[in-house]
Every structure is written in C-alpha cells, then in structure tokens.
Design brief:
The protein is α+β, with helices and mostly antiparallel strands. Helix content is 37%, strand content 17%. Helix 5 runs antiparallel to helix 6.
Length: 408
C-alpha cells in the first residue's frame, strides 16, 4: 500500500539521479533550506493546500509526491529555488536553442515557471544573441502616389556590363516613366551632367530617392541638389528594398539585356526597342501608359491604336487602381515574408547585424551595443555610446538587448 504523498511513478534510475544531485557538497544545504517546498511537503502529508506560498503547485497537486525527503512530480525532481539557476546553467551548456533547452529540462526536472525561466536564459545569453537569426523584416511601407508627374523620382546605376558601360536609370514615381543614360564613367561630375541634361527637358524634381553610392553622397552632388532645390532621400544602408521601384526596373532592364546577349544581338538597339515597348504599355498598378501620365498622351509605337484616329475621353481612375493594387500587394508580401512589427524604440540598447562579408566564424550580430536615438517607420538611427558616431539601419538589422532583471 502506498503512503499519502508517496509516488509510485518515480523509477530507480531517476531516484539515484535525484539523490546524487542532492548529495553534492555545495548544493545539499541549499536544497534543504526551501520554505516553500517545506510547505508543499506538509500539504502533501495533510492534504491541505490553503497556504498562499503553495498556490503555484495546486494545479499539479495530484501529480506531486515524495521520494524520501525529496518532492517529485511524477518521475521528475521538483528543484528547490536555490538550485534552479544551476539547473538552467546545466541545461544551457552547449548553447541549445529555446526548444531544445526546455526539452532537456522537462525530461528530468520541474518547478513552477520553468519554461519561462528557460526562455529568459536563452534570450539573455550573449553568445546566443550574437549568432541568432536575423529579425523578421518590417511590414512593407507603401509610398503614396505623388500629386503629379516628375515630382518624386528615383535614380540608380545598373552595371558594369561586359563592355564596361553603366546604365543610369531614373524613374518617376507618378507615371513610372523612366530615362536610361549609357555611361562609361560614373563619377559624381559625369552623373550630375547627365541628370542635368534630363532635368533640362523634364524639369527639376522636388525629391530624388537614391542609395548611398559614392557618386550620390559627395559634395558635388549635394551642392547641385541644393542649388536646384532638390531634396535627397538616401535609402537606409544595406536595405535596397527602400528604393524598390528603381531596383525592380533594373531587374527588368537586366533581363532584356541578358536575352539580347544570349542571342548575339546589338544590346543597345534592343534597349531602345524595350523602352518604346515600356513607354507604350500600361502597367497594372495604374492602367495608364507612362508616356500618357507624364506627357498627356501615349507616344506612337509600331502597333496601331484607336487613338491614331480618335481621342478617347480621359479617365481619372488610375489613382484608385494604383492604391488598390499596392494594398493588395502589400498584404500578400507581408504574409509571404512573415513580417513582424519590431518593438525597438528610442532609448533601447541594441546589437547591430554584421552586414559586410566576413569569415565563417563571424557571428550574425556584432557584440558592441548601441543606443537607439530615433525611429521613423522601419528606419532607425543608433549611436555608439563610446565614440558618439551614429548609424542609420533598418529595424530588421537590429536586435534589442533585454536585461533579464527587467524581463517579466
């Protein structure tokens, strides 16, 4: 017959393991001094569970028992409070992930809130932080359609091609109209000269979105922009998605150039044919051709059109179509990429992802801690508290450092 509070599920092997742990010199005394477990033992013997300290154990009281003077849950040791940190250290040897660490603990031991404490231990482990997977990308931010053509444009370089030629691509956010300049030199001076030629025909835009290429961040380019009242929107370093429209256009251009090269054709002539096709084809997001939206009419191509003999009444539904298409695309891409809004905010301590190529042993994140100074959407400005130098990064490049003492 089994005495009250004594378990029959605790096998001999686990009993020996429990006794070995409790007999260790430095931990033996700590295991004995645990007022809460003392109260649990009394409750097991008397069947009364009305003391506040034993409340976390009440849902499991039918599974609790005793082996000698030791409280167990089934075939698992109920660890005294002063030994729990040591158990967490043992379970995290070898730096297992959260799930593996929990399985290691659950196989032998138990105490109330054990899973939560295991999560905190993995989260606060500096080594695990440095090699952890990058954060999920931030939810997509869609740029609203400008009020008219050639107000907001984007520029980027494509190349070099095998013959050393670069393509300077400039595209209008409103109409999707784009200009392509062939360049052998891509210095800041030559870039400004080519842009000025385009702006002389189409006017100076209010804003230019561009990356951080050396041609675009020099004094010469900035002075030109100031002189002509053009605001520069530099994308976040190492985050080309922020200048997504021109990046997509570059991929489309490159595809045509690859086809031309594979067929042994004149790629420069094929580029012109592609641009005529592009100018006279309405994109799905607006339903209007780029030349119609920027010039007021679609330029003629080799394909005959009804517009050659009569003028269709104008339509103003393209803005609504653009908005619906963007929202639909945003929802689809957010689900596909499993985006998650980052909790990073001003004043947080963060690690910065190592974005430059390194050796095989380089960790995902640098061990240096930075302080978040400001945040605008997914764009975050951090500062090195030692040198005072600031950096702009996308929130997906950063990982918040959580002090385990302040974690709930």
């Amino acid at each position: 017959m089994v005495e009250p509070g004594i378990t029959e599920d605790f096998d001999a092997e686990n009993k020996c393991m429990v006794l070995a742990i409790l007999e260790s010199a430095e931990e033996k005394e700590s295991a004995r001094i645990d007022p809460v477990l003392d109260q649990v033992k009394k409750s097991l013997q008397t069947g009364k569970w009305d003391e506040p300290d034993v409340k976390p154990y009440i849902p499991f009281r039918n599974e609790l028992g005793m082996v000698g003077d030791t409280v167990v849950r089934g075939n698992k040791l109920v660890v005294p409070s002063k030994l729990r940190s040591r158990m967490l250290d043992l379970a995290h040897e070898g730096h297992p992930g959260e799930s593996v660490m929990k399985r290691r603990l659950r196989d032998r031991v138990w105490w109330p809130g054990m899973d939560r404490e295991a999560t905190n231990r993995v989260t606060s482990c500096e080594g695990c932080r440095l090699v952890g997977l990058p954060n999920r990308p931030e939810p997509m931010s869609r740029r609203p359609l400008p009020s008219k053509p050639w107000v907001d444009v984007a520029i980027d370089f494509l190349g070099p091609l095998p013959d050393g030629v670069y393509l300077l691509v400039i595209i209008d956010y409103y109409s999707r109209y784009k200009e392509v300049e062939l360049m052998n030199k891509i210095s800041a001076k030559e870039t400004v000269s080519r842009l000025d030629k385009i702006f002389t025909r189409l006017g100076y835009p209010r804003t230019i979105t561009l990356d951080n290429a050396k041609q675009f961040v020099g004094t010469e380019f900035e002075e030109y922009s100031k002189t002509h009242a053009i605001h520069l929107n530099h994308s976040t370093p190492y985050w080309p998605q922020e200048n997504g429209l021109v990046e997509r256009q570059n991929r489309s251009l490159l595809k045509r150039l690859q086809i031309s090269n594979a067929l042994g054709r004149n790629w420069k002539q094929d580029l012109q044919d592609y641009l005529v096709m592009y100018y006279t084809t309405p994109p799905s997001v607006t339903g209007r051709t780029p030349t119609e939206l920027i010039y007021g009419h679609t330029i003629r191509s080799k394909i005959p059109s009804l517009d050659d003999i009569e003028t269709a009444p104008p339509s103003t539904d393209f803005a609504d179509k653009d908005l619906k298409s963007k929202e639909k695309g945003k929802d689809r891409e957010d689900i596909k990429r499993k985006t998650k809004r980052s909790s990073i905010d001003c004043g947080d301590s963060v690690l910065m992802q190592n974005l430059l190529p390194g050796n095989k042993l380089q960790t995902t994140y640098n061990s240096k801690k930075y302080v978040v100074m400001s945040r605008s959407g997914p764009r975050v400005t951090v500062e090195d508290p030692v040198s005072g130098k600031s950096y702009d990064r996308n929130a997906a490049h950063l990982k918040k450092v959580i002090d385990p003492q302040h974690r709930r």
